[in-house]
Amino acid sequence: MNITELTLTETLEALKRKDFSEEELNKAYLERAAKLNPKLNIFLEIKKNSCGIPAAIKDAILTKGMKTTAASKILSNFLPPYNATVINKLIEQGISILGKTNCDEFAMGGSGENSAFGSTKNPWNLNKVTGGSSSGSAAAVAADLCAFALGSDTGGSIRQPASLCGVVGLKPTYGRVPRYGLIAMASSLDTIGPITKSVEDAAQVLEWISGSDGYDSNCSDTKFTLQPERLTQGIKGLKIGVPKEYFSEGLDPEVKKVIEDAIKKLEEQGAEIVEVSLPNSKYALAAYYIIVPSEISANMARFDGIRYGSARADFGPEIKRRIMLGTYALSSGYYEEYYAKAAQVRTLVKQDFDKAFANVDVIVGPVSPTTTWNLGEKIDDPLTMYLSDIYTISANLAGIPGLSVPCGFADELPVGLQILGKQWDEETILRVGYAYEQATEWRKEKPKLSF
Amino acid sequence: MNNYEPIIGLEVHVELNTKSKMFCRCSADYFGKEPNTHTCPVCLGLPGALPVINKQAIESCIKIGLALGCQISKKSLFERKNYFYPDLPKGFQISQYRWPLCINGQITLDSGQVIRINRVHQEEDTGKLSHRGDVTLVDFNRSGVPLVEIVTEPDFRDVESVRDYAKKLQQLLRYLGVSNADMERGDMRLEANISVHPIAIASKASPWRLPDYRVELKNINSFRFIVAAIEYEIKRQIEALEKGEKLLQETRGWNEDKKCTFLQRSKEEAHDYRYFPEPDLPEIEIQNSDTKKIAEQLPELPWSKSKRFADEFKLTATQAQILSESKELAWFFEETVKHGNKHGVSAKEIANHLINKKTDINIVLPVQVIEELKGKRVGIIENKEELEELAEQAVKKNANAVLDYKKGKEVALQVLIGAVMKLSLGKADIAKLKPILEKLLKS
How would you write A343-409 as a 3-class SS string? Predict the structure, then answer.
């Protein structure tokens, strides 16, 4: 048995059966990390534990006494004096932090290349990007360097890298998981969620990290509970919506084919496929890139060069770009035209989903319009980079949950199926994801990593 | 000089006396505490920290709004006010702009003039900088302490009414029990907007409108200084207009040494605060029933009390005003009147006595006032030996107060007097007791 290939659920069962000890478990992952990390640049810091279930944590999530940099020079020496709530919740469950994972600086980016500490390499092809911003967390799961990982998703930062790295990524409903201790990017859209080797694992981790802590005013008391019999009941009779807007121009034909096959598979499982329309999708990206930079311009203000030991000149170009965009959009005389307008569009996007979900249980489509691309390919073209999030950002604007499940390959590169659900209804998207995963063999595919 | 009319509007910041800070669980009682000991990730603005609204502060803010006759908003929002300053750890202040908690109130001055209140809103205080030679130190104990801002319309026409308004507001805040409103400690801070225009032009202009500039007097942390600054500013502006100069929108500070105001920021340098709704906080919804509940908790307001004293006890307006100056004195007066009723002492006599004798209500009991007034010394303990014995007992029972007294804390004597009063059931003669106690403590 190869310990590091086991899913989280399998690992928990094996530990219960005493197939191996926690010490052996940690040793196996640490050895693998020591060999692979220099090639993949996944971990910014590794902690040598001998017990606990090893998890990889995005470096935008605060860990007490363990450096938390958000992959920025600004915080390169920041030792947090407190744990994020999700970390405390995981520690209560016997989880240990194996390492802090690389990401786009302050979670701003869609390729992992905006890290001040170098790009993470995609385990499926070392010349390609992992996607982002939770680049290291997705790659760590794909390369079997942890039992599971945590990422954060503001516009697709869990789902898109999960898709590009061929693993499961879950963006929960906004307000399901407390954000306290997550370095804020855009506060009204930020969510923390799991990146895992299976759908069941994602449900398990969500159960562990959900539920209010009294520190996040936007977090609900409703904790998600994993109910295996509901997760595994199949999808016969479920109504699955397919938005026509997600299959138009811009979607890579190879990716399109893989997604269409996946939808057929869902139909074979007994689901009813219905076309739906999300007519305001075309405005979502524009609204997103007003709201997000606006919030960023305020959230980044604390890094003013007085505290944290680094001058503002140390911000990477994407951070500077967004601070300037946001500062402009909020300026007196422009607020009504930009921020206020974008907030209205946001409401329309939300209403689109409300209407669609009146008729269907979930909505499926692609996560990303393409598979992964070459390192450096889009780095000088921010607009093209922004477009890679075109299918994911709407869920953040609407606050609804979204799941990325591996659904095949286009030119030998992973493709993810996106399953969007009603607010607070992670259960149904996980149920659909589980049914799909069990009906296919994709989860068994692993990148060939030689060392 | 008399051809010009000053136009003044005030912004008053009031620090609330809530137990915890506005958005975190740190103690808000920061005054005189060791620097940076009342802090946490939230009020230090650390990455990842999030605000949670202090409900008690919102209630206090609404109380102030209601007492000033404001409309309470059914829907209110916090917003981020963005600016850089070393005492502002997040780089923005959580404040209110478009959706304040309370709007459109008013307050009547002694002169009868009505000052309109534009808004009463909730925000958080900043940290405190202290400059020591070449270095500047930051203390974040004050960071995040609840602050209420009360903004008037530009209704003041002279410094006297500014003074009266500030005094009335302070009295109101203390009556409501929402703030210590101590100006010296910075619980209550004033900022003024001042402009001046020639009366001749102003009266002809139709409709009446404000001058096209205003000077903001800011960062002046003493009441005395702000009054001096307003007086100086009125003079300066009139002189400038006389010389035919054009006055501009600007922010000025006060130089106490030179007794003059000085330019801090011109209009071009004015901040654009880029307000937008605070995404980390939910909208505040206030139901009519919530407002009603808070309204029911309001005490009798000083001006109502004063009016009632005048009507009910046939006092002069001045007497009524003096006796209702503080909640404590008003209570003492009414208690004394109750005792007086039983012994045929009139409220008017009591009022005269309290005002003329400047009775110290902290050491005398209402019943003693009546006894004194009736000239009946019956029951009052004046006997030296008896008082000495009581004093000794009190000293024995209050070792801590004795220690405090020896450390130089004068208030400790009050504690001991109180103890003797308790032992003697309020019958010890304080004037005679005091020297006895002092002698005993010094021995």
Answer: HHHHHHHHHHHHHHHCCCCEEEEECCCCCCCECCCCCCCHHHHHHCCCCCHHHHHHCCCEEEEEEEE
Categorize the per-residue pLDDT at B241 as very low, low, confident or very high, splitting at 50, 70 and 90: very high
Extract the tokens encoding B96.
Answer: 């209110």
Domain that holds residue A293: 3-444
**CATH number reported for the structural domain that contains residue B396 in this entry:** 1.10.10.410
List of chain A residues whose C-beta atoms are within 8 Å of the C-beta of residue B276: 294-295, 298, 330, 335, 339
Domain count for chain B: 3
- Say if residue B311 is in the same domain as residue B369: yes
Asked if residue B277 and residue B407 are part of one domain, the reply reads no
Structural domain contains residue A72: yes
Kindly provide the ipTM of the predicted complex, given to two decimals.
Answer: 0.96
Is A58 one of the catalytic residues? yes
pLDDT digits (tens, 9 = 90+) for B398-440: 888 888 888 888 788 888 888 887 787 777 888 888 889 888 8
Condensed to tens digits (0 to 9), the pLDDT of residues A296-314 reads 999 999 999 989 989 999 9
**Which of residues B296, B312, B332 is at a domain's end?**
B296
Top-confidence residue, A35 or B378 = A35
Task: Please report how many Cα atoms fall inside a 13 Å half-sphere around the Cα of residue A9, on the Cβ side.
Answer: 13
Give A183 to chain B, closest Cα distance, Å.
Answer: 4
pLDDT in the model for residue B378: 52
The partner residue sitting opposite A217, judged by closest CB among B53, B86, B276, is B53
Q: Which of A84, A327, A335 sits opposite B48 (nearest CB)?
A: A84
Q: Which of B321, B347, B373 is the last residue of a domain?
A: B373
Distance (Å, rounded) from C-alpha A226 to C-alpha A212? 17
On chain A, the residues whose CB falls within 8 A of the CB of B82 are 297-298, 301, 330
Q: Is pLDDT above 80 for B206?
A: no
Identify the burial level of A412 via C-beta atoms within 10 angstroms of its C-beta, where 0-12 means exposed, 13-18 middle and 19 or more buried: exposed
Residue of A nearest to B52 (CA): A217
Is residue B379 domain-resident?
A: no
Q: Is the pLDDT of residue A87 over 80?
A: yes
Rounded to an integer, the average pLDDT of B223-247 is: 93
Instruction: Tell me, yes or no, whether B416 and B349 share the same domain.
Output: no
Q: Testing the interface with B: which of A63, A292, A302, A397 to mutate, by most B Cβ within 10 A?
A: A302
Q: What confidence score (pLDDT) does residue B24 get?
A: 98
pLDDT band at residue B219, thresholds of 50, 70 and 90?
confident
Contact A58, A103 (CB under 8 A): yes
Range of the structural domain that residue B397 is part of: 384-442
**Residue A449: inside a domain, yes or no?**
no
Look at residues B192, B261, B262, B251 and name the one whose alpha carbon lies nearest to residue B6.
B192
Q: Do B49 and A180 touch (CB under 8 A)?
A: yes
Query: Which residues have CB under 8 Å from B410's CB, separation 6+?
Result: none
| Interior/surface letters B204-219, b for 16+ CB within 10 angstroms, e for the rest | eeeeeeebebbbbbbe
Q: Residue B103 above 60 pLDDT? A: yes
Q: Which of A61, A295, A306 sits opposite B279 (nearest CB)?
A: A295
Q: Considering the candidates A111, A119, A133, A198, report the single residue annotated as catalytic.
A: A133
* Token pair in block for residue B8: 């003044």
- A396 occurs within a structural domain: yes
Per-residue confidence at B204, pLDDT binned at 50, 70, 90? low
Q: B47 and A331 in contact by Cβ < 8 A? A: no
State how far the Cα of B379 lies from the Cα of B428, in Å rounded to an integer.
Answer: 9
Number of domains in chain A: 1
Question: Does residue A297 belong to any structural domain of this protein?
Answer: yes
Q: pLDDT grade, residue A241 (50/70/90)? A: very high
Whether A21 is a known active-site residue: answer no
The reply to whether A297 belongs to the active site is no
**pTM of the shown model:** 0.90
Do B125 and B148 lie in a common domain? yes
- CA pair distance B202, B207, nearest whole angstrom: 9
